[in-house]
Structures are given as structure tokens and as C-alpha cells.
């Protein structure tokens, strides 16, 4: 970037824009220039400007630093009296300045003197001094303190696909991201972008559960849109903790910060910035699945009626569907030929809860007219799920609704219309692969835990025997009561050492479980080694079937009967174990 430096008397100046390469913001000063005193060391006047420029470029990062706004000093009125640009006195020797010693004397005298010097400098430059601007008809008059150096510190924000996964929950009260099991117990947590220790998680969430009904506090990440939002929010939490976000631009808490982030992303989505970018180059954002149109074609040719219901507008829907479908359909079919009805701007989830006016799209430009009766092959805007049922003369479980949003698509269509539901969860393919490759690891881990459980049970029996003997009561058996104290203690010590060594091996393996899917959060569908995640609980509750993509239907006939697996219960393993014991006893009796 072009940088200029000029010698003006005993000062040299750098245009403010030239400091953009440095870590401080361009708004670090309200003046047009930054100035410092140069070291009087030049022997060659011809090279003076170039030498000064090189000098400043090499030390600019060290001389200046930026203080977060909430760390400013304040006066007795509670207002900031200090800007965010500071001098690092340790590096001022480059300019021949000896830190505070350069400005010795009573501060009142020094302030007036330096102000006069600066005023003369501005006069030489032809720049009006601030008092001149204020004391004029063009002045800006302040009735309440206002700092124009506002704005979120968004430099350096980046989308990290490994930072957040679907199914996590934002704790808007604490600025945390948590992973909960199906009961709501928090298993892992992250504050900002820093993972919390097991002890921190226990202290913070040991006495409370994640309750998604409390929407003011908890935000469930159930879509890929929400994943992007969480990635941005957690990075902003770091900046908030560092003091880089002023209370002037955001309510002073994590909940207010979440609202601000969500509002910014919502604006980008609703105002069309995001969709316009995608529509301009869909090949950069959309990976067409050649099998998807063929899977739907099988269903259509089997006599099923196909509907497309989307919240997107006509132009975006038409562009994306043409890009994703038309090239893969046979016999010059277009995407519209697949569907008996297309509904755009459906306003889900309200689409399932209430009725909105229905309009028919009548031109290729998206012009619409009011409509009161639908026809086959029509393209409509608005309406309701009840209208769909009435027009097709089908109801409830005669409809299979396929969507990728647990709340907007799956749960609402299930709760309000009793439709059958299929959830699309794209991450399943990666998770399935990770589970397969983790099979040996998990089998070894389970074996170690089972070994510790056996050793622990033995240890606890000996411990109980010792406890009873120490209180003067008999142990569980006569032999245990009469056992030598030293023998009993030594046996317990050995078992305790065994358990400690098992723990040393189990702990890192537990920590690593699921890292093939995500190093921070583990598997999408699991919370810990044994239990299901909160996301998996939602899927089981609202989705009749779930899969990674719609095109997977191509590998099943349109007449498939999907049967759920047997659901195991906690006492099933004990019943099986008892049956095995009883079977062995019968075999032994029979043999005799």
C-alpha cells in the first residue's frame, strides 16, 4: 500500500490510511493524521523522506497498541476519557523520545504547550482546529455522550467447519456452546472457542439440565444455517471477553451479543445478499446429485403425487432447481414436470399452523394473482398445509414429508398435521464412516471399562467387609470376618492400583472417542460412550425415518416397507445374562 511521509518542521506525518496494515483500526484517531517526533539523525537531506518512511514502517506495530473500549479509564461521571490508540514507551527510542521524560513538568503547562504546538501545525496544514469547528453554525452539538468509534471487531472472523456441529446448544446466558445427552445433561462445553474441562462442565452444569422450552436461554442448532451462526457467535464471545466490544454497540451480556450476531446474519439472508451471491455462481455453492431427480422420478412413476414446499422465493427456487435437476432428467423433462404442485414462500413453520392467502405465480418473472382453487402442475405462493390436504384429498399419515430442518419441517408437520416424516441429515455419511473405523477402538474401550467394573465390584465387597469390621460388626461372611487385617488391606491395595492403571488407559480413550467425526464434540448422534445425544433424541421423537440425502430412496423400491428395529431397554441385558445362566444350568442338569 502506498505510504507518504513528509518533514514539517520538527514533526513528520503519516497519512492515517497508510496505517491500515498495522493492527490498530483506521479509526484509532479522530484527526486526519498521526504524528510523532523524529530522531534528528539525517545526514543526507535528499533521502530524508524515504528514511523516515522506512523507519516508521519498521516500528509502527511496536510503537502503537489498541486498548479495548471497556478497558478505558473513566472519569467521575463514568465516561471514557481515553481513546483506544496508545503509545508503547519501550520502543520510542527509535524516534529519539525518552518516554514520559520528554514531556516533563506540570501536566497543565505541558498540555497547553503541546496543544499550542499542535494548533500551529494544523494552521500550517490549513486544517481547522476542533474548537473552530465546534464554535460555528456548522458545529455538531452534543446533548448526550456519543462515541463515533463504534462497530463490531469482525476482522479475522473465519468459518471453521470443525468448530461447531449440528445438534449442539447455545447457552446465551453464559456464552457457551454445549453438547447434551438425550436427558439434557451437559457432557461437553465450550466457552468462546475454548473447550472447557470436565471439572468446569461439572461445576457449571452439574445442577441444571438443558431445557429447549426455555428459548430465552437455550438455542438448539438444528440446521446448517444455525451452525454458521454459532461459528460467528463463539468467535465474537472471545472478542467480548477480551473487551473488544463496547457496550455502546451491544447490550453488555452474552445474550445481547447473540441477538446482535443473529440480527446481522438474518439481515444478510432476508435482504437477499446471501441468495444473490449463490444465484450468481451456483456451481460454487451447490453440488448437484445426479441420483436425486431419478429417485423422485421412480416415486412419481409409481403413482405417488410429488409436492415441493419451500420458503424460498420464485427466482431463487427456479434457479436452484434448474441447476440441480434439469440436466439429469430424461426426455427433455424440466424440474416442474416432476411435481404435481409447487409452493414457494410457504412461510414454514406457520404453513403448518395457520392459513395464509394463496397466490398463483402466472409469469416467468414471478408475477402473481390471488387464487382460491389449486390445479395439478400449478405454482403457488403462500397457502397452508390444510389447503394441501384438501386439494389432494389426502390426510395425515398418507403424506410423507421430507425435510432437513427438525423444527420447521419435521416436528411441526408431525405435531400439527400428523404427517409421516423423513429427516435429511447430510452429516450421517461421515458419521457412519467414522463409527465403522472406530469399531475396534470402541470395542477395546468397552472391554477395559468392563474389566474395571469387575475389579471395582470386588474391591467394593472387600471395602464393605473392612468397614463392617472397623465398626465391630461381622463382615458379609464368617471367612471375611476372620480374615487377617494385613491380607485384607493388601488385597484392597492391589485392586486399587489395578483400577488406577485402568483409569490411566481408559481416560484418554474416552476423550478420543468420536474424534474421527469431530475432535471437539465427538459423534453427532452420541453423547459419551453409552448414550444418545440430544439431537438423536429429537430425531427419534419427530422423524419416522432419517437418511443422509433424498437420493438414497433410489436404492429402495417405491413400495418399501420400513420397519423399525427392536428398541432395547435397560433391563434387556440382565434378562439375556440371566437366560444364559439358566440355560447353562439346564444343560448341566440334563447332562447329569
Q: Which key phrases capture this entry?
A:
alpha+beta, five-stranded antiparallel sheet, 20 strands, about 10% strand, flat, disordered C terminus
The DSSP helix count reads 19
Helix content: 40-55%
Structural class: alpha+beta
Using the CA coordinates, give the radius of gyration.
35 Å
Find the count of extended strands (DSSP E, 2+ residues): 20
Largest sheet at a glance?
Answer: 5 strands, antiparallel
- Mean pLDDT comes to 80
| Percent range for β-strand residues | 5-15%
Distance between the termini: 96 Å
**Spans where pLDDT lies below 50 across 5 or more residues:** 1-60, 69-80, 588-592
Biggest sheet, spatial arrangement of strands: 9-8-7-6-10
What overall form do the CA principal axes indicate? flat
Please, could you describe this protein's structure?
- The protein is an alpha+beta fold and 592 residues long.
- The chain is 42% helix and 12% strand.
- The chain has 19 helices and 20 strands.
- It has helices at 48-63, 107-125, 130-134, 198-205, 224-241, 254-270, 273-280, 282-285, 291-301, 314-325, 350-353, 385-392, 406-417, 428-437, 439-470, 478-482, 485-512, 534-542, 572-591; strands at 5-8, 11-15, 33-36, 64-66, 85-87, 169-171, 176-180, 186-191, 194-195, 218-220, 307-309, 341-344, 358-361, 368-370, 378-382, 400-403, 420-424, 526-527, 531-532, 545-547.
- It has a five-stranded antiparallel beta sheet with strand order 9-8-7-6-10.
- Helix 5 packs across helix 6 (254-270).
- The radius of gyration is 35 Å and the shape is flat.
- The model is unreliable at 1-60, 69-80 and 588-592 (pLDDT under 50).
